[in-house]
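User: Some background: our group keeps a shared notebook of sequences we're curious about, and every so often someone picks one and asks for a predicted structure to add to the entry. Today it's my turn. The entry only has the sequence so far, pasted here. Could you supply the structure so I can complete it?
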Amino acid sequence: MKQVLKKLPLLILALVLALAIKDKTYAATYGKLTYEVQYDGTIKITDCDRSASGALTIPDTIDGKKVTWIGYQAFMNCNRLTSITIPNSITGIASEAFIDCSSLTNITIPDSVISIGESAFYFCESLTNITIPDSVISIGYNAFYYCRSLTSINVSNNSKNYSSIDGVLFNKDKTQIISYSAGKKETSYIIPDSVTSIADYAFDNCTRLTSITIPEGVTIIGSSAFDNCIRLTSIVIPNGVTSIAYGAFNECRSLTNITIPDSVTYIGAIAFYGCSSLTSITIPDSVTSVDKYAFVDCIGLTGINVSDNNKNYSSIDGVLFNKDKTEIIKYPAKKEGPNYDIPNSVTNIGTSAFYKCSSLTSITIPSGVTSIGNYTFFCCSSLKSITIPEKVTSIAYDAFKDCSSLSKVLCLGNAPKLGSESFDRCSSDLKIYAKNGLTGYDANGWENYSDKIVRYDETLKDKSVTFTSRKQTEKVELSNDIFKSLASIKSYEIEDKSIVSVDSSGNVTPLKNGTTNVKAVVQYFDGTKVNLTEKIVVNVKSTGVAINPSTWSFVDKYQTPTKKMAAKVQPVDTAFQDVTWKSSNTSIVTVDKDGNVKAVGNGTCKIIATTTDGYNKSGSSDVTVDIKAESINLDKTSLDITNMGVKEKIKANVSPSFSTINRPVKWSSSDTNVAKVDNDGNVTVVGNGACKITATTADGTNLSASCDVSVGIKVQSINFNISRYTISDTAQSPLFKPVISPSNATKKGVTWSSSNTNVATVSSSGVIKAVSNGTCKITATTTDGTNLSASMDIIVDIKAKSISFSSTSYKITDKAQTPSFTPKILPENTANKKVIWKSSDTSIATANPSTGVIKAVSNGTCKITATTTDGTNLSASMDIIVDIKANSVALDKTSMQITSKNSINKLVATVTPSQANQKVAWSSSNGKIATVDSKGRVKAVSNGKCKIIATTTDGTNRTASCDVTVDVKFVTGISFDFNSYTITNVNQTPVFRPNITPSDAEDKNVRWSSSNTKVATVSSSGVIKAAGNGTCKITATTTDGTNLSASFNITVNIKATKITLDKTKIELTTGKETEKITSSIEPSIANKAVKYTSSNTSIATVSSDGVVTAAGSGTCKITAAPTDGSKVTASCDVTVNIKTTGMKLDKTNYTFNKAETIKINPVITPSKASKKLTWTSSNTKVAIVSGDGKVTPVGKGTCKITATTTDGTNLSSSCNITSNVEYQKGDVNRDGKVNVSDVLYTMNKYMKGILTDEEKVIAEVTGDGKVNMNDVYRILAYAMGKISSLW
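Assistant: Of course. Here's the predicted structure to add to the notebook entry:
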């Protein structure tokens, strides 16, 4: 505010020179210029004929009136003008005054100019320098945007508001850098330390800069500050910067690395848009807000990492989320992997989250997601299918636009609200699937894709199936072909597996009557699973059971005592055949679950079969068992028993005989004083004598058989079955029973004796025990008085049974040790205890074969084994551990000189004593001088001295060393004589050689590499070839082990040499209002980007891709020019011939009750007809109207505002105005008069941006429809009496 007030005297001086005031403004032409005469009598240049070319001079007066102002867009698109001379009468250059004057190379701003509006020289790409006079007090932001040839902006030394250093524009005290000249040739720039603020657009389009150094004092980086600095590779943001503003690094395509300091709290929209070389970025914990568009089009980004302490954001595997991971904000476009499953915590997919993730073929959206932002999946060109979860309620505009491979969209819920063009330019085969029953797919934006939406039933073919026959089969399958194309049945589950079975193909087979459900697990193409159920009813009715045979009798001795019954459930062909079997009397017959009947006893009963299907139908068969005995015999007809109390068993055999029938008999003894018999035929001796034991049938036939029993008999002979027996184990205690005849002798006892109890003894019961090796006889003698005897030879031959040592291991630590050991052999009375000794590894220790004396040979572990020689070959082992430690180690060399890096010098280490471990560990005291491998081979690394040390590895850590001196000619430096080189011709294949020091280095070879082979490649011999426009780094690295490197930048800037259009002339008329032109650029390696411009956008406009659209009748030229700076162009003449057929206004009546400005909008048909109108007021004391239809009341009364076409049709329409407002223009503070207080009041609120709408109407006095400093100057001039009217 203070600075503006200081400039008021200059403003007053300018206003004093104003010409006389006229009653109203009017428009006229002067040569190629169109102008308006202002109310103060001065002239404002408002337009220039687009055909104007070459040099143009703006006059200082026209018809005696001073030209003081160059108006808004006055020279827009005058792209044939090369030079403009501004007269010394001009005080202001309005916003966008010279926008797109692309051929303008020279313009002089005179000392009279006070202000330069925003974007005043926008896209004046041929302008090379400009000088700001000291009169200028205000320069709008972005004033020199895209002036890419501008090499300097110079400021008069007397300027009190601005300054410049080396062609760079600053504020006066150089605390803010305002604009860096985009055409400067330097590739790096260091911002002065005085700067604390970088203005909006300060470095926009500085395409040559590769490096910018920002001083630590900078705290503000303005919007678009480094916009389109396409060669900028890295930048360090100072720690005081708190925000990265809108578009700050927009299109910095070469930016590979940027560090965001902990001071930053905000990252604005498109802050890093198009930073295609940026691979990763870390968001510090200080950041509280990241705009949803911050990282759009960063197609090289592989990861976004967030500090763990950040309270607002988080990352998982390089993917950016909000803190609680309910929103996914950005998935890096170049992150590896074709598939991505969004975490289940996510409920919102943010704007542009997957923008241009062209490598992703599959993305899984979790079920909890409720919204999908705009551009979310834009240009995911490999994405083939997607599933929209049930809870999604909105899909924003362009969400899936340009997903060119997307052919299948599955919607699981009711239609979300759909933004415009959400699925535009997807695959031509795109189908959007929504199951029937879901609503909203005919509205909410989905109607635009009605030809893509496919409805289907998510059901099984049958809801319920009833089985009435056991032969019936049914298949569980999906209900329709569309459903089948989206999903398949993965498995089947039956609630009750006893009722039906189902195979892997879904075929259901009934097993028994009942009701159950079959659940089909259906899986969609994306893995989503749903369970569908089909009811199964099995109701197979049975009418009865037929049993075969219906009757059966067991009466024949030749019959098998078991029988297989067969039951057939009726009807046989359809009913279940399962039955249960039952016997009415299990004491006669039994029946198992398979119908096998078994006879148990004589009698009659029924066998019953009953159905298991729930109807309980049954059938029966009568069974009779009646089999009589025909004969009986005993297994013994006589018994001779010599011992009282002995029991004998007599078995009765009744015929006919079969195992399943119990045949009871009655037993009896003729004399129970001699022998008794029980019911089972067991005979017990009672006393000596004779009797008969008789068995009689119990079935009524009374057949019988007898056995004669005799009790009391003597021994007649005794002997052994073997004549000799050998005992070879002390554990043996053999017992031999002599054979005594007859076997039924009354007394069979014997006495035992040994012929030599020193060899073997025998107990009274005949148990023999060995005493010592030898032979003796064992004799048994009867005791019943007969004194008969029998003998056998016993040979005792005891062998070793085990061999062992008292310890399992022994350690030898001194070569003088020669231990020996005695094994323990069991049993103790083993005759032969001699052993043979052997070592498992004689390189470690030996053992004397006969004495077992052990001698150490070398360190290690082996086994010493003793083996018996008595034929048993038993063995025992023990571990011998030889651990003889080193006493010392010596090297074959104590010093070594290396003069070549390729030579390998070997050292040999000797450890004493020789039995000690000879292995050593090698090391270097300085691996940067020389290295040594595990075999003692020494290799030079760099010059200097070090020691090579050998250390024993047996724990003694004995060492020996060799002094090594390396004196090799290594490379100490590598460089190039230049920092960069530019290839501008496809035939250029430069070769460069690095400077290597010292010149006599042993190995001067280098290895070549390119940082980006898509820009340039380099061969192994250093030959460079262009591959595509851009900048990369060529690096040469030494191969002598020093790995020194030197680099230089290669810029490939092959510009277009020719551009052609497929059409040179087109005509646009009603019904044909657009037409596309296509450009071709040579050579093929040149940048294909083309900028299309129209010489008159009011006649025809042209899009960035060459689509020409009619705007109004007339002729113009569409020009195509490469954006690479080459001067070649091609053009197409366009004729537009569309006349106005109708015109009306959107307001026909309006009443003003307060100071305001309204806009009356014309409605012109056809829409492409000329929009240019003339506006008039029938009474300018009531209301005035601007050239674009803005109406402002100036006094009470009525008038008519009329708009008239200018295309020759002269159609017109009017709006009746009633004004109840009376106020004085300029009296902004409404105190009834216009004075300096209104100036101060207006300036204060204008600078703060708090003017009310009514205050803006009163303050707007220049007629341009907006309030700015020009209005303030005019009110001041009126207040000072310099002009007589404010309007």
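Suggested note for the entry: The chain has six helices and 116 strands. The CA atoms of residues 93 and 973 lie 57 Å apart.
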